[in-house]
Here is the input.
Amino acid sequence: MKRPVEIVQDIIAASDFPHDEIFLDSIPKEKEHSINETQVLLTESDNGPNDYGNSDFISLMYGVYIQIFYSNAEDSDINIVQSEINLMKSFINNDWLIAQSKSHYIDPDTGQIIKNLTVQRIMTLSEIANS
Here is the structure.
């Protein structure tokens, strides 16, 4: 059984989204200042019972918070808007909902463009067991 962040990691890895590294739960200290790489941080936002039947739950609501830290490298030619559209379509094609898509902002310390998304999916217990 995979954790929600691992399932989302697989979707991103299988997509054409341009990234250098994907981190689960936290960014290691030695990578926190890698401003010339596009990094993706995945953390759980939801993980709890959702649907009930016969006095028991039969599915879980999974949610994953996605933070994208875009590279500051001068030779980086990422088409941010198109890349994000393609990424969101990859989630939709894998039965995930785009629950939230925040506007881009600039990190005042690093100057990196940052994008935050939250994706959600309700998975039955049997789907979870087979993930």
Notes: The helical segments are 4-14, 80-93, 125-129.
